[in-house]
Design goal:
single chain, mainly alpha
């Protein structure tokens, strides 16, 4: 496998992970805006509570006008994407 192929695959994996983190952040922020607490969000979305709490805690710093892109960016840094 060439270095170019490896870099391409790595770039695609990173892009996919970033997209998934953005979607997850958006879903959680929508639930926060509805006044739903982390444990309930975790159950509704069937996502690990620790993950929801991480995003919830970051988002709370940006409320009530949540900037999903900024929240997602900070969250991605905490999980090293």
């Amino acid at each position: 496998m060439s270095i170019l192929s490896i870099r391409l695959e790595r770039g695609q994996a990173i892009g996919k992970a970033q997209g998934e983190a953005s979607i997850l952040t958006d879903l959680i922020v929508k639930k926060i805006e509805q006044g739903i607490m982390p444990k309930q969000i975790s159950e509704i979305l069937e996502i690990d509570l620790a993950t929801v709490e991480k995003i919830y805690n970051i988002a709370k710093e940006y409320g009530p006008n949540y900037n999903v892109a900024k929240i997602s960016e900070i969250y991605r840094k905490t999980i090293s994407i």
